[in-house]
């Protein structure tokens, strides 16, 4: 890259870099990508710096596309920023975009939760979509086990492990079964009961706590061992123990994208990105403290752990080491 072009890139205002990343994430989350593309086109035409920032995204996207394996040729990378990359630094702001069409299908490999009394389960890196008779749609993340049943007029979902995204039927929807009124929905974990009120939300069963995040509508919560009850609105989240509320934990932008097979990060520490992959994959990733705070932004295919790690090693000062006892270790590059 010429020094003149590098100076032009360095001169892009931070606000423009942030806007470019935001538009990129909007495009990946969009229900109507063509509409967002038109909005991006308008934004690019407003200022030369806008156009330059977007051209750089597209240029690096083309440059890193060969990193994809033959089996995952849909994967493409686009780098916006990462600390400590010297001449490999392309823009100051955010790192990377990875795109993948499709989600891995279910496989019959043996997993520990196969012995649990679950009606539906997923394996490492897998997802499954379940639609109930009352119109509720549930997406299961990787390594998730769920029991569901109709008790009287209530659909009861018992999350045994993992994470689900729920889009419940509207409270006033005329979704009926013979002999029943519109069905009520409950989600149970070890710690809490969650009752949606025409909403879209996620529930994650952790080792000794439950995290609930609301994206649309509202949910009512009640812990099992205690009096703590709370109602969460859109944009709110919380972590619960069996005997009460532990802390507020509002959802981050794009975090529910795992239901579409993607992880959308915005200025996210590397260790948080790796932690998300750990939740959905059997092969666990550990990391050295010196690389944990590297910042990443972009869209990453959740089913393609190996491809994502390969791409990250090309654009971050890291290397991936296999541990003799199993699992992977991310450490500083040589």
- Assess the beta-strand content as a share of residues: 25-35%
Q: What general form does the structure show?
A: globular
CATH topology call of the largest domain: Phage tail protein beta-alpha-beta fold
In this structure, how is the largest beta sheet organized?
A: 11 strands, mixed
Task: Summarize the helices and strands and which ones pair or pack.
Elements: H1 3-10, H2 14-29, H3 33-45, H4 48-64, E1 76-77, E2 98-99, E3 120-121, E4 128-131, E5 137-140, E6 145-151, E7 154-167, E8 184-188, E9 192-205, E10 210-223, E11 229-233, E12 237-241, E13 244-248, E14 262-269, H5 270-280, E15 285-287, E16 295-301, H6 305-315, E17 318-322, E18 328-332
Parallel strand pairs: 7-8, 15-18
Antiparallel strand pairs: 1-2, 3-6, 4-5, 5-7, 6-7, 7-9, 8-9, 9-10, 10-11, 10-12, 12-13, 14-16, 17-18
Helix pairs in contact: 2-3
Main attributes of the structure:
Ferrdict_sens_TM; FecR; single chain; sigma factor antagonist activity; FecR family protein; 2 domains; 334 residues; 33% strand; Jelly Rolls; alpha+beta; Phage tail protein beta-alpha-beta fold
């Amino acid at each position: 890259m010429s020094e003149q072009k590098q100076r032009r890139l360095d001169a892009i205002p931070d606000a423009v870099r942030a806007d470019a990343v935001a538009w990129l994430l909007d495009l990946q989350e969009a229900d109507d990508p063509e509409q967002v593309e038109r909005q991006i086109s308008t934004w690019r035409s407003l200022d030369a710096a806008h156009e330059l920032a977007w051209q750089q995204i597209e240029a690096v996207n083309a440059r890193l596309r060969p990193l994809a394996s033959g089996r995952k040729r849909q994967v493409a990378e686009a780098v916006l920023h990462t600390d400590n990359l010297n001449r490999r630094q392309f823009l100051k702001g955010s790192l990377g975009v990875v795109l993948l069409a499709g989600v891995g299908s279910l496989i019959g490999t043996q997993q520990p939760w196969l012995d649990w009394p679950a009606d539906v389960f997923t394996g490492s890196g897998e997802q499954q979509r379940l639609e109930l008779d009352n119109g509720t749609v549930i997406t299961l993340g990787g390594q998730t086990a769920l029991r569901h049943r109709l008790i009287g007029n209530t659909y009861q979902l018992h999350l045994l492990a993992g994470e689900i995204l729920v889009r419940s039927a509207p409270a006033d929807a005329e979704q009926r079964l013979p002999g029943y009124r519109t069905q009520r929905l409950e989600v149970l974990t070890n710690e809490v009961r969650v009752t949606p009120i025409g909403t879209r939300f996620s529930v994650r069963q952790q080792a000794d706590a439950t995290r609930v995040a609301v994206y649309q509508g509202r949910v009512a919560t009640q812990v099992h061992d205690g009096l703590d009850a709370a109602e969460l609105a859109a944009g709110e989240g919380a972590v619960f123990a069996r005997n009460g509320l532990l802390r507020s934990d509002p959802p981050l932008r794009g975090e529910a994208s795992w239901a579409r097979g993607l992880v959308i990060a915005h200025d996210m520490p590397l260790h948080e990105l790796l932690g998300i992959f750990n939740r959905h994959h059997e092969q666990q990733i550990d990391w050295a403290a010196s690389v944990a705070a590297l910042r990443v932004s972009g869209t990453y295919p959740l089913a393609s752990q190996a491809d994502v790690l390969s791409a990250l090693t090309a654009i971050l000062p890291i290397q991936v080491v296999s541990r003799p006892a199993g699992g992977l270790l991310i450490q500083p590059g040589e």
